[in-house]
Amino acid sequence: MSSEHMRALVLEDYGAPFVYRVIDRPRPDFGEVLIRVKASGVNPLDAKIKAGEAEHAKQPLPAILGIDMAGIVVEVGEGVTSYAPGDKVYGMTGGVAGLQGSLAEYVAVDAELIARKPANLTMREAAAIPFGFVTAWEGLVDKAKIEEGQKVLIHGGSGGIGQMAIQIARAFGADVYATDTDDKQAIIEWFGATHIDADTVSVSDYVNKYTRGAGFDIVFDTVGGATLDASFEAVKQYNGHVISSLGWGSHSLAPLSSKAATYSGVFTLLPMLTGMGREHHGAILREATRMAEAGQILPLLDPRHFHLQTADQALTLIVRRGETGNIVVEI
């Protein structure tokens, strides 16, 4: 294979397996860097895009999927001064909006979307951070203005967003609780949150037990559907704040309005879809690097190793919810 080509996984039909191909290697345009991808983080959204169930991602076919990546800069485009060949970086690269994703040997990425990889993390670990961390930061910090001492409830605490939300909230000095299934209790507690099994404990019961009936200062919903409705019930009056990264359904705002509480939606893909606000993604990831190097965040990885040829298996695990941590494909 010549230096002008690369190996990549191409999705030609929604719901079909990836096709392993040798294709032209991209060149970095103005403001972009060319990255040799070392690891591609797999998110539930990647699986939904592959299945044709994520119209909001606006990804036409054929496409190379993969939102998250970690790798090494090999070439910089005109106008880029913040990176040089050899820099180890990570971030959200594409896989949406017609942008090439990370399930390939190389990707040309807008330099504003990325940051330097935490020095103390492996490529696999770094690739598991971007989407989850950016979503959690935008919700907790940008929207809800999290403060020390607040009681924070995170729905779906063992997921990629939930893991990062727990760790960010704890780093800010919050008292953190997280719902998830009973088999995820050990993961929740490993990250330092109090586990709540929402399948067996009612909202009113855990609100009474952990907040003496007052409600949580911040409720972060990463699950959607009925869980968002439960969030409206669990939040505190007046200055309580509900955040959701999956607020796509139809919901009654009456429970929230009657409390004079606040709701914010988080749509992490927006900068990649619109081209606006990409610099903020890079700034958030610089915070992630700072926190990782300070020992405040660490992704929990599924111990299984996947490569381009077995990436379909990785996404199937996500669909079946058979993962025991973040899944990463090594390139």
TrEMBL record:
Entries under Pfam families matching the protein: ADH_N (PF08240), ADH_zinc_N (PF00107)
Domain Enoyl reductase (ER), first and last residues per copy: 15-329
Compartment list: Cytoplasm
Entry's Gene Ontology cellular component terms: cytoplasm
Domain of life of the native organism: Bacteria
Keyword line: Acetylation, Cytoplasm, NADP, RNA-binding
Complexes and interactors: Homotetramer.
Protein name: Zinc-dependent alcohol dehydrogenase family protein
